[in-house]
Sequence to fold (318 residues):
Amino acid sequence: MGIVEASCREPAQARAWPSKDQRADTHPTAMASRATPGELQEEATCSLTIACGHNFCRACLTGHCEERGAGGLTCPQCRAPFQKGQFKPNTQLNNIVQKLRQLGPGQGEGLCEGHQKRLKLFYEDYGAAVCLVCEKSRDHKSHRVVPMEEAAAQEDQAHVKMLREEREKLLGWKATGEEKSQEYLKQTRAAWQKIVAEFQQQRHFLEEQERLLLAQLEQLDEMIVKTWTDTVTKLSEQISRLSERIGELEGKCQKPVSEFLQDIRSTLSRCEERQAQQPEEMAPELEEQVRGFSQKVIVLSETLREFKGTWGGWRRGK
Fold:
């Protein structure tokens, strides 16, 4: 047997048709604003919908039909005509009440679980909402109670204040971070300019030193070549003269012995006068310059090696 049939077995005379004011009070909207889930259940399970779409309880609608008797039936609310028997249970409204009941007492409509009264007060000590009956009990007389609206406003203000403080804190961190970032960027840009200027200056210095050293080395090369050329020229002259004497003596050896012996002494005398002379060694100052350049190359290599090691350590973060 359905819920509507089971809850509507009361006689038709059980309830009189309500007055206009009473009908306004028993309208589903008005009832839902004040009624408990149990009262809503009672009204919804007896709620019938007529042809015009308005809803009334079974007892009231049955009584209205009996009062009219054989006369025409009209909707008490909009005066639209309808015929007896042209109404059906409002199952949709009943389903809504069922869902409200599933929420539990005090959850769907903000009711006190113990007294089924609206929660109008707030205990600040416990952070709990109570009804007027709870407020008058002995257990809560010493507690500080404020209206729900005031408590909500206080909570809202407290949360807004807290959030504003958090926002100010974040804004302060942001400003501090931005200030530090700008200072760091200023330092890095200054370091960038300094590095560019230093490397440019060092490049100019190294290029100038390179040109100077190469020019000096080229001059030293020319001096060495000139000294060796002079030495080779002198040695070549001596070699040429000695070759002439050798040829002269070999020619005389081909002559008769008597003729050879007659002028041998003069020939040997000329040979002794033209003995080979050892060339002069390289000038001491030239040797000193060569040794000086060799030492400069060693110092330059060591300096560059040390610089590479230091710079490599910086790049690796050491």
User: Anything to note?
Assistant: The chain has three domains: 3-102, 159-280, 289-318. The mean pLDDT is 73.
